[in-house]
Predict the structure of Aminopeptidase.
Amino acid sequence: MDERVREHAAVLVDWSARVEAGDDVVVSVAEDAHDLGVAVAEALGERGANVTTLYGSEEVSRAYLKGSEERADGGGDGEGDGDDGGDAPVFDSDPAVDRAIFEAADAYLRLGGGRNTTATADVDRRTRRAYAKARKGVREARMDTDWVSTVHPTRSLAQQAGMAHEEYKDFVYDAVLRDWEALADEMARMKDVLDEGHEVRIVTERENAPDTDVTMSIAGRTAVNSAASVAYDSHNLPSGEVFTAPYDTAGEAFFDVPMTIDATRVRNVHLVFEDGAVVDFAAAAGEDALASVLDTDAGARRLGELGIGMNRGIDRFTDSILFDEKMGDTIHLAVGRAYDACLPDGESGNDSAVHVDMISDVSENSRMEVDGEVVQRNGRFRWEDGFEG
Amino acid sequence: MDERVREHAAVLVDWSARVEAGDDVVVSVAEDAHDLGVAVAEALGERGANVTTLYGSEEVSRAYLKGSEERADGGGDGEGDGDDGGDAPVFDSDPAVDRAIFEAADAYLRLGGGRNTTATADVDRRTRRAYAKARKGVREARMDTDWVSTVHPTRSLAQQAGMAHEEYKDFVYDAVLRDWEALADEMARMKDVLDEGHEVRIVTERENAPDTDVTMSIAGRTAVNSAASVAYDSHNLPSGEVFTAPYDTAGEAFFDVPMTIDATRVRNVHLVFEDGAVVDFAAAAGEDALASVLDTDAGARRLGELGIGMNRGIDRFTDSILFDEKMGDTIHLAVGRAYDACLPDGESGNDSAVHVDMISDVSENSRMEVDGEVVQRNGRFRWEDGFEG
């Protein structure tokens, strides 16, 4: 086994999830994440934790959802029509086993890395939406654990990134095997700016695309120094972003980084906000998938997150939100659910069954202001060499 | 996908586990049982059941156990010694998540089929024994569900059986895709004999091997018509045996069918019983593994099962207990845990953390008597053509 797999497991278990002896740890292993699953299990045995392994197979999920569609179509006829006709399946909103798992778990480690990033592409969007809605309680129980999501560098992810497999392994391990303490210190400066600020404005001018000029309130919200550890309320490995939960968004935003929503490629999203909510939208590709997200529930049209990518170890977009949103010189906004960590105690932020991040490259013709002061221009932060205020 | 995979899933879900809408079903998918996992998930979606998939990887289990050994060895030195030196690891006897899973589950479907049937061969036996002991509560909770164990025909199992992959698929599906109702009717005759009987005697004469002449009481016990369905208290697919829970065993028994215990090949087991317990034993190969089983706890030296193989669709031994013990013209005895289904209400049978089956070919020079009457001679039952009483 590549020694970096074991190093990855050690960072995940010790730095990220802070697993201790006696912890009950649930590990979800995707189809091709077997080697990382083995390394994580070994590390958990060494730490004296209990381990339960789930099979995180997208192909199994697809089969279950397709079977459910068949049932909703009346079964028996053996002819799932596969289109949007008929009723969406009804799913149990309180599945006893999954609920019990996450209520009993101390930590949840999701090891992504399937065999096909578009494995669920032919599942009706309404089916997925119905399933996501029904699973809200399970998802919340899962997020109440010390959860961490990471990926094993599989061929399928390499392909999505347009890279050779060995090249992609280097990319992933460069992003994951970092000096996380040093990066956490660096990001603390941005967190201070956002914690003290009241209003953020992002302006980007582009040729052949709509400009971005969007403002949002962040007063009273707490930014998360996302240093890839539950000790920082940070749940992705790799990480390297600072994010908060904005509200009262107004203006227009354009996102030039492509993404995949529900197995559909989405490009050049343009959102128009009024009174905190999306009132108009467009996309050059995948507009239906975008519409489906925005129509999930009321919260799906409001922002749940403003994030500043600060991990300059990630040097290119790979169509994976785990990496893309952390890349230096990017800013992202997410529609949907806000993270509790950003909210004052007892206050509920934007609530939704979805959380979909959208990313802008801000390395050129761009600035971010906090309370009227420029904090970042063309990618440079004001405490960095080369910053022009 | 081979259509037989879907047929296998349908038999498992409908005939074996009797899954109904709203059931909470836990499916454990071994490393190479993916296709069957997909087919089962689709079937569960069609039936309107909830599904939770566990990753039943022996390699993950090995890694966890090896990591635990490392911890027991004092960790830090990075040198697991791999031998029997040092203390066995201590495992949590009440792991919260696994306990919660099986307490909440209605049914548990185990889809075997890893990549290497000897994947845990280098785990210290004492470690495995300590783990098995600690997991007794979880195992009991699991057996309180409508559990069914089956296998997907993988290359690794084909290799263990000494067969080509396609040949092995035919072997498995011939055994699984049967007319189970008809077989259940046939087996009901043997169940009647055992339910009404008080004492069983098995006699087999062999050249170049010890004879078998063993008696056991079955008075008051109830035989299970193991027709591969929880409706018959039968939990293996395929099945095709009638079994009960004997006691007060005396005499000697020789088992000529090879088997694998804890990844160790065991051949020609000879057991000597007095007052219901094994007082002497030998094996031509794997005697240490046998000894380890018998030393697990007090119940490991007493019989938990007498079983009569009646599935003549299985035409050869394949070193897999799931198939071997069901083969027509065989009888097996298991040391260890008895199944509750064989016991009168409120009475506890033989208790143990282990249950290990051992098989004899009874097609020649052999007879089984119940209360002095010959019921089976040289494989033929007394209700069959060719039976000589």
In short: Residues 136 and 319 of chain B are 26 Å apart (CA to CA). Residues 180-381 of chain B form one domain.
